[in-house]
Structures are given as C-alpha cells and as structure tokens.
Amino acid sequence: MSLFDIFRKRTTAPVARDRLQVLLAHERSVIGKSDLIAVLQEEILAVIARHISVDRDAVQIKLDRGASFSTLEIDVEVPLDAKMKKPATGAGVPASV
Amino acid sequence: MGKVLVVTSGKGGVGKTTSTAALGAALARGGENVVVIDFDVGLRNLDLVMGAERRVVFDLINVVQGDAKLAQALIRDKRIDTLSLLPASQTRDKDALTIEGVDKVIAELKEKFDWVICDSPAGIERGALLAMRNADLAVVVTNPEVSSVRDSDRIIGMLDSKTLKAERGERIEKFLLVTRYDPQRAARNEMLKVEDVLEILSIPLLGIIPESEEVLKASNVGAPVTLNNPNSAPSKAYFDAARRLKGETVEVVVPMDRKGFMGRLFGRRVA
Ligand SMILES: Nc1ncnc2c1ncn2[C@@H]1O[C@H](COP(=O)(O)OP(=O)(O)OP(=O)(O)O)[C@@H](O)[C@H]1O
Ligand SMILES: [Mg+2]
Hints:
The structure holds two protein chains of two kinds. Chain A is an alpha+beta fold. Helices cover 41% and strands 14% of the residues of chain A. The termini of chain A are far apart. Mean pLDDT of chain A is 72; it is low at 88-97. Chain B contains 14 helices and eight strands. In chain B, strand 3 (75-76) and strand 4 form a beta hairpin. In chain B, helix 1 (16-29) packs across helix 13 (233-245). Chains A and B meet through helix 2 and helix 3 of A and helix 4 and helix 11 of B. Bound molecules: adenosine-5'-triphosphate and magnesium ion.
C-alpha cells in the first residue's frame, strides 16, 4: 500500500467524487431523453430486470457507426447466482397484488 | 401490520433524508423489518445517502403505474438484510404519482414490513401531502432557527388536518427531532434553545441530533450515519431516537464527538 492509498482511505471526499461522476454521467444522458443510447439503455435494462436481478451497471450499450451500417452492441453481465424472477406484468398492465 | 412513519419538515435542507436513512438503519439493526421510501420525485437523494444509486432500476412511479411489481423495485440493503429502499423517480413527472396508487403501494408495504418510513420532499405542496397521507406517526425535523420552526408549525397543522388519520378523526402521533444542533452556539445563546422550540411547537421530543462532520462523511461514502460510524455522536442520538419510536423510554442527552486538538483549543477560548 502506498502513502497515497493510506491518504485515500482516510478521506471520504474522493469516494464522493467517484460516486457522483458515475451517477451524473448516467443521469445527464437520461434526463431529457434526447440520447437514443440512453433510452435504449433504460428500456433494455428494465426488460432484463423484470426477469433477473441485475445492477444497473450490468447492462452496457454501444453504438458503432460504420460507413454503410451501424452495429448496436449490448453487453449484459449476468451474475452467476442469477435467479429467475417470477414473471411480471408488462408495461401498462396493472400489477396484480 | 407495519407502522407508517413520515419524516417531514416544510423547510428544505434541514435533515429529512439524513434522518430517514439513519433512523431506518437504526431500526433495522435492532431487528425490525424496515423500508424507506423516497417521495422526492425529480430530486431523489435517499438512494445516494444509502449508497444504492447504482442499483436503481425501477422506482415508486413505475410501481404506482403498474409498470413494475413492488418486489422488483425494492432494493435490499447490502449491509443489513432487514432494510430496503423504494427509490423515487429522477426523470418522471411528479404528477405521475396518484393518490390511489400511493395508498395501494403503502398498504402492500405495511403487510411486508414493520416500519414504512416516508422521506418527504420539502414544501407544503402535493408531494409533501402524498408523503404524509398514510402516516400513523410523524417525525418533524427542525433546525433550531426561526424559519425552520415556523415551517414546522405549518407542517404540524397539516399533519393534524390533511392526513387520512386526521380525516378519520384519529390522532396522528407527532415527534420533534431537532437536528444540526450546535451545543457551543447554544451555550453562547446564539441559537434557539431546544426548550424554547419544544414550548413553541408543543409536541414531544424524539431527540437532539448534534451538528457533526460524521454526517457528511457518511453521505460521501453512501451509508446511513448509523451504519457508517455507529459510535459517533449523531449516531448515538439517532439510535436513542429509534428506541423512543419503538416506545421505549430513553433519557434525552446530546452526545458529543470527542474533540480534536483544534476543537479543544477553540472550546477553551470561547469558554
Ligand atoms: N447533524 C448534521 N450535522 C451536519 N450536517 C448535517 C446534519 N444533518 C444534515 N446535515 C447536512 O445537511 C444537508 C441537508 O440534509 P438532508 O439532505 O438530509 O436534508 P433534507 O431535509 O432531506 O433536504 P431536502 O429538503 O432538500 O430534501 C446535507 O448536506 C447533510 O449532510
Ligand atoms: Mg431530502
């Protein structure tokens, strides 16, 4: 462990900065819903989360623009102990209690 | 059947979200089954204070609108498994919360949890009313300062008239939680005395939470202060307050953090 690590451990502000950077990068892209990727990210995440328990970092989406076509890359990290959730109602249908 | 507790204040920034997380975690640590709900639609922060911001997928509005089941939106705390969070939406319009929807969600939560703790948004508008509507008990968070006390008085009036309990002619239990209390400034007579605040608002005292840097440290790392540093002064005060909520009689003291060198020097100079 370097001196720097010791210093980092004892202070909490760097942790706060890191947490905010991750969170705000995400929120800025989602709020206003201008960005296609952000919309896809949210909706794909929602679909997956309906069936298995995942954190929001588990779904990564990338759009590579090529000359004649673009590829959409969806990377979903499924935890080893992923549990199948009970089937849920779809959007718009009131959940039964 | 669980109890519904609203943490409210009228005035913004007095410590509602901090207190919701701290009291929720304190109760959960004592073995109670607790869910904390963020009612601050559009300005959610309880997820950040609890360190669950990266785990939010569905929120209260999704559940109210039937787009997700309650079980899918609840986030179980990684440190204490009797503590859960129901986050607010950050992106949706707050008018998406309907009275019927909120009532239904709270009724469902009361079946599952011993405590349903609602973190109210500031203000006296719709959001604050929705947060307090189903409450059996209310914690009125107040700073010892004139505008905060005035707003608390307003909120107490609303608790007595605008909640379901009040409409049914029942009494809603109200407690005063004085937060950001600075004993040194109180000693110098620069801050309203707790006795004065109590006399003005005349509701029973739940606790006095001292101003402490431990609160900021805990929010930096994303943990309720009662989990991040259970032995700190604000945590002790929150643990005592949680015991009083459960009906125990606990003497009110103002715990103090041990002073560092600077603190001692400063303390001596003003004494
Ligand atoms: N006992 C305390 N000591 C020091 N700082 C505190 C204490 N309690 C709360 N704070 C700080 O005060 C600020 C406001 O707290 P918090 O977000 O809990 O208030 P709030 O009432 O929920 O605000 P809002 O009305 O915006 O929802 C935060 O920066 C928090 O860290
Ligand atoms: Mg708040």
